[in-house]
Amino acid sequence: MAAKVEIYTWTTCPFCMRAKSLLKSKSVDFIEYNIDGDEIARNKMSERANGKRSLPQIFINDVHIGGCDDIHALERQGKLDEMLGS
């Protein structure tokens, strides 16, 4: 079964683009919350992300995994595919 992947982004954020590119390269479907300038949405994201406000913030099966560097670290460690259910 495919994992539920959610990512909070800004349109012009290079880290967001890089994280989405990794997911797309793995043919992972994800829900994107584009929160450009929306402080209410950013506050909601921050609550889910244990106070983190940087972008992107990524969740797999409702578990906060962090941002761009974190998802790429999981990929390098060979753990991302397992989390994604691949």
From TrEMBL:
Residue ranges of every copy of the Glutaredoxin domain listed in the record? 5-65
Q: What name does this protein carry?
A: Glutaredoxin
Q: Where are the transmembrane segments?
A: none
Pfam families given for it? Glutaredoxin
Which family does the record assign? Belongs to the glutaredoxin family.
What role does it play?
Answer: Has a glutathione-disulfide oxidoreductase activity in the presence of NADPH and glutathione reductase. Reduces low molecular weight disulfides and proteins.
Key words, A-Z? Cytoplasm, Disulfide bond, Electron transport, Redox-active center, Transport
Q: What is the lineage of its organism?
A: Bacteria, Bacillati, Cyanobacteriota, Cyanophyceae, Nostocales
Q: Does the keyword ATP-binding apply?
A: no
Gene3D superfamilies assigned to the protein according to its UniProt record, in alphabetical order: Glutaredoxin (3.40.30.10)
